[in-house]
Automatic annotation (TrEMBL):
<dbReference type="GO" id="GO:0005829">
    <property type="term" value="C:cytosol"/>
</dbReference>
<dbReference type="InterPro" id="IPR000595">
    <property type="entry name" value="cNMP-bd_dom"/>
</dbReference>
<dbReference type="GO" id="GO:0003700">
    <property type="term" value="F:DNA-binding transcription factor activity"/>
</dbReference>
<dbReference type="Pfam" id="PF13545">
    <property type="entry name" value="HTH_Crp_2"/>
</dbReference>
<dbReference type="InterPro" id="IPR012318">
    <property type="entry name" value="HTH_CRP"/>
</dbReference>
<keyword id="KW-0238">DNA-binding</keyword>
<dbReference type="InterPro" id="IPR036390">
    <property type="entry name" value="WH_DNA-bd_sf"/>
</dbReference>
<dbReference type="InterPro" id="IPR014710">
    <property type="entry name" value="RmlC-like_jellyroll"/>
</dbReference>
<dbReference type="InterPro" id="IPR036388">
    <property type="entry name" value="WH-like_DNA-bd_sf"/>
</dbReference>
<dbReference type="GO" id="GO:0003677">
    <property type="term" value="F:DNA binding"/>
</dbReference>
<dbReference type="Pfam" id="PF00027">
    <property type="entry name" value="cNMP_binding"/>
</dbReference>
<feature type="domain" description="Cyclic nucleotide-binding">
    <location>
        <begin position="12"/>
        <end position="91"/>
    </location>
</feature>
<dbReference type="InterPro" id="IPR050397">
    <property type="entry name" value="Env_Response_Regulators"/>
</dbReference>
<keyword id="KW-0805">Transcription regulation</keyword>
<dbReference type="InterPro" id="IPR018490">
    <property type="entry name" value="cNMP-bd_dom_sf"/>
</dbReference>
<protein>
    <submittedName>
        <fullName>Transcriptional regulator</fullName>
    </submittedName>
</protein>
<feature type="domain" description="HTH crp-type">
    <location>
        <begin position="147"/>
        <end position="222"/>
    </location>
</feature>
Amino acid sequence: MNTIWFFEDVNLFKVLCPHKFKAYKKSHSFNTFKKKDYIYFEEDAANKIYLIEKGKVKIGYYSEDGEEVVKAILTKGELFGEKAILGESKRDEFAQSVENTTSICPIGVQTMHDLMRDNQTFSFKIYKFIGLKFKKLERRLQLLLFKDTKTRLIEFLEELCEDYGYDCAKTGDHVIKHPYTQKDMASLIGTSRPTLNILLKELKDESYLDFSRKEIRIYKKAI
């Protein structure tokens, strides 16, 4: 798996968390959050980046009308708040825990800069990771602006297949074991949960896929 949210098959938590480094281990602690707790708000000072040890985190912002716009839902091993590395002084988004047992590894911006300065290869990988992440967010924005809901769902399923899918040897189907709820998926493609459920049933009736709570199977003939 080589995706936007992970780089080169590496779980970022295992690579970056300060408790892995002797110089930072003694002074480092984890932060825990319950469901709907905010890790940070819009306009908060951007002085840390974060890695998810366990749980899920929603990244988004609020429109002028007060509507919540979800940019991403991240899971174990993923990084967020990374624009602080690039000089962002205040947050332009919020980060909120989606589960009751979310554990976060915080890294100070200066600590991150020190790690990047001391290892040029590592620094390159971080910038590559950030660039790819921005590219994926831009693509998702284009989908929201220019594609109908059903097309957005199908393309989102293709992304899920890249991130969480595998080929079933017996049938040739693509099986996706993903961490998202239907509410998560609806938020990410800019629709309601009832509409998402209707579209999934339509695709099922069209013999494009079958689905359950944690698994989606895209049939071989639909690929």
